[in-house]
Amino acid sequence: MKVAPRSFALAVLLLGSISDLTSAQDDSIEARAKQMSDNLIRQHEAWRTMSSPGASIQAKAVSREGNIFSYNLYVTGLPTDQLYTVVAWPVTGEKPYVQMEGVSLSKDGLVSCTWRQEGECEDPDSSPRDAGAVDFTFKPVKGEPYRFALINGDSKASIIIVPDPITAKGKGCTLDVVRLTPGFELAFFTGTGYPPNLEITFDSDSYGEKHTVKATSDREGKIHFAMMPFVLGHPKGTTRIAAVGTNCSPSLKFEWGQP
User: What are the helix (H) ranges across 17-133?
Assistant: First the structure.
């Protein structure tokens, strides 16, 4: 069975548009934009940690045709004798929604739709080879995350899949960026391999407009930070960003504006 995420039109995208808000001079509007972006970042990060203790999901790529990606999901740490609801939260969605109900887990944890249990979803395309495996199919833009969770009461596992990532490596350090809004109005960065418990400086450049962003690594050398890359007067553009002042200095660029 192939399942593609449903698109949602946001009634309000961070008070209309973060790109408009960044050009506003009203401090209260800017403060409101920051509050809403901070909330969105917290919700995104919370998705990573919502799994029950010992539970996790691994995504296995099964096919790619051009820019269309398909994955199977394998779950560990959850009971295989019960049915689950698949919840999705696309970046185009204001909130998570129920995508499928009644999926089961095979003995190896494969998310399936086999109609073996009462109330389980039926896969009309199932075959002996795939045993009703659910294919999660995406047509992403670069840096677009897909968030999924399997839930049954207190039993739950979550995953974030980025089929077409934007990533950079340099001397043991990594830097990744995902779009938390459809047009990259809010860019969220994560990185690994940095010196622990140290303030790391990043320099960014968009249309010659330069900014410095600072992030403090944790004791494991991981970092995360966010930025609003839009430049006043430009509906689209490219931002280049790189770590400076450290032995490793990964750099990357990404395109912002409506894809």
Answer: 18-22, 27-48
Ramachandran class of 257: left when φ > 0, alpha when ψ lies in -120 to 50, beta otherwise: left
Say which amino acid occupies 23.
S
Residues in the chain, how many? 259
Q: Beta 135-138 vs 155-161: how paired, if at all?
A: unpaired
Contact assessment for residue 85 and residue 101, using Cβ atoms and an 8 Å cutoff: yes
Count of Cβ atoms closer than 10 Å to residue 196 Cβ: 11
Beta bridge partner(s), residue 150: 86, 157
Beta-sheet strands, E only, within 43-165: 56-65, 68-76, 84-90, 97-105, 111-112, 135-138, 146-152, 155-161
**Whole-number CA gyration radius for the chain:** 20
Write down the pTM of the prediction: 0.86
Residue 121 corresponds to which tokens in the numbers above? 């979803």
Domain architecture of the chain: domains with CATH: 46-161 (2.60.40), 165-256 (2.60.40.2240)
Q: What is the distance between the alpha carbons of residues 225 and 135, in angstroms, rounded to a whole number?
A: 32
Strand partners, 3: 136
Per-residue pLDDT of the chain (259 residues; tens, 9 = 90+): 667 664 433 323 343 444 444 444 556 767 777 888 899 999 999 999 999 999 999 999 999 999 999 999 999 999 999 999 999 999 999 899 999 999 999 989 999 988 777 888 877 655 445 668 999 999 999 999 999 999 999 999 999 999 999 999 988 999 999 999 999 999 999 999 999 999 999 999 999 899 999 999 999 999 999 999 999 889 999 999 999 988 888 999 999 997 5
Cα(245)–Cα(172) distance, integer angstroms: 15
